[in-house]
Design a protein that fits this description.
Helices cover 40% and strands 14% of the residues. With 260 residues, it is of the alpha/beta class. The chain binds nicotinamide-adenine-dinucleotide.
């Protein structure tokens, strides 16, 4: 496990983190690093079934906001932002680590994907980030950072990633357009692209263990990344060290993506 360095790089920052399902979630790694570096954290959970898994993590992170958020339900995201506005009066960081596709579509070939399944995957995994940006921007009166999670399957063909490839490609493109549209307000926008990590979402992909083994064998660093590695990269992107970076996809994959 990567050690999280102590520090105050995010002291006084207010971070909304969407997409914690449990302690293995990438979003939790990000929230934990942000907190360790001094930020305050707001969290969401998908539904009542997910709540008991997220509640203890919210307590551990001293989160003043823990709200339900299913991005397929009209009004949920708006209600989260209303609560954030009421609690903090502003926001510095909003992180989106949400993806979903119906199992049949996720596990079949792209060429066979249903119109409905493709639409749901796009809505939950891509357009919800655009909606998050729309709601976050007015709260970021002194600038801020918007982050989302992508994957190498966006730009290269990764067998079994299927329809999520084009969905993540759209997400990375949305990052660039949002960076362009929000740059003059001091809002920077990035995708972070982790190497494969054993999480609940990843367990829906066929032969995911193969991807993990290949990552260990092929990545120059020779180890899998963990959720704290992703959190540290995400944290960096929110600091003044990254003040002149926006619109990019930043890989945190031990170098896996440079390999032919
Ligand atoms: P995870 O299962 O822990 O997180 C996925 C989250 O999406 C869950 O919290 C789930 O509740 C949420 N979600 C799904 N549908 C939703 C909806 N309708 N409304 C609100 N939330 C919803 O898995 P993870 O691997 O931490 O996934 C986080 C992000 O990281 C995803 O975008 C995923 O594509 C991306 N990612 C994962 C890997 C990996 O190998 N695990 C690699 C690269 C990118």
């Amino acid at each position: 496990m990567t050690q999280i360095p102590d520090g105050t790089a995010l002291a006084g920052k207010r971070a909304l983190v969407l997409g914690v399902a449990n302690e293995h979630s990438i979003a939790y790694g990000c929230a934990r690093v942000f907190r360790r570096l001094g930020a305050q954290i707001a969290l969401t959970y998908l539904d009542e079934r997910a709540k008991p898994f997220v509640e203890p993590l919210a307590r551990e992170l001293d989160a003043p906001v823990l709200a339900p958020c299913d991005v397929r339900k009209d009004g949920d995201l708006e209600a989260v932002f209303a609560q954030v506005a009421e609690t903090w009066g502003g926001l510095d960081i909003a992180l989106h680590a949400i993806a979903f596709a119906p199992a049949n579509d996720l596990q079949g070939r792209l060429v066979d994907s249903s119109r409905e399944g493709f639409g749901i995957a796009m809505d939950v995994s891509c357009h919800s980030f655009v909606r998050m940006a729309r709601l976050a921007a007015p709260l970021m009166s002194e600038g801020g950072t918007l982050l989302t999670m992508s994957y190498h399957g966006a730009s290269k063909v990764v067998p079994n990633y299927n329809l999520m490839g084009p969905v993540k490609a759209a997400l990375e493109s949305a990052v660039r357009y949002l960076a362009y549209e929000l740059g003059d307000r001091g809002i920077r926008v990035h995708a972070v692209s982790p190497g494969p990590l054993k999480t609940r979402a990843a367990s829906g992909l066929k032969d995911f263990d193969l991807l993990l083994n290949q990552a260990i064998q092929r990545a120059p660093i020779g180890e899998l990344v963990d959720i704290d590695d992703v959190g540290l990269t995400a944290a960096f992107l929110t600091t003044p060290y990254a003040a002149r970076l926006t619109g990019t996809t930043v890989y945190v994959d031990g170098g896996l993506s440079i390999m032919a």
